[in-house]
Amino acid sequence: MMTLLILAVIVLGILAVTRLSRVYELTSALRGKREEDITERDSRMNARLMWAFPFAYFAFFLWLTVAYADQMLPVSASEHGVWLDDLLNFNWAILIVAFFVTNVLLFYFAGKYYYRKDRRAYFYPHNSKWELGWTIVPAIVMIGIIIYGLSVWNRITSVPLAGTPQVELYAQQFNWTARYPGKDGKLGATDFRLISGTNALGVVTPNSIKTRLAELEEIVVVEKKKLETEGGFLPPSKLTALEDHIKHVERMRGRIVNLRTLMDQDIAARGAESPYNHGSDDIVIKEFHLPVRENVDLVIRSQDVIHSVFLPHLRAQMNAVPGMATRIHMKPTITTDSMRTITANPVFDYILMCNKICGASHYNMQMPLTVEPDGAYKVWLSQQKGFETAEIPAAEVVPATDTAAVISNTTANIPAVTNEPKKN
Ligand SMILES: [Cu+2]
Question: In angstroms, what is the span from residue 351 Cα to ligand 1's centroid?
Answer without folding.
Answer: 14
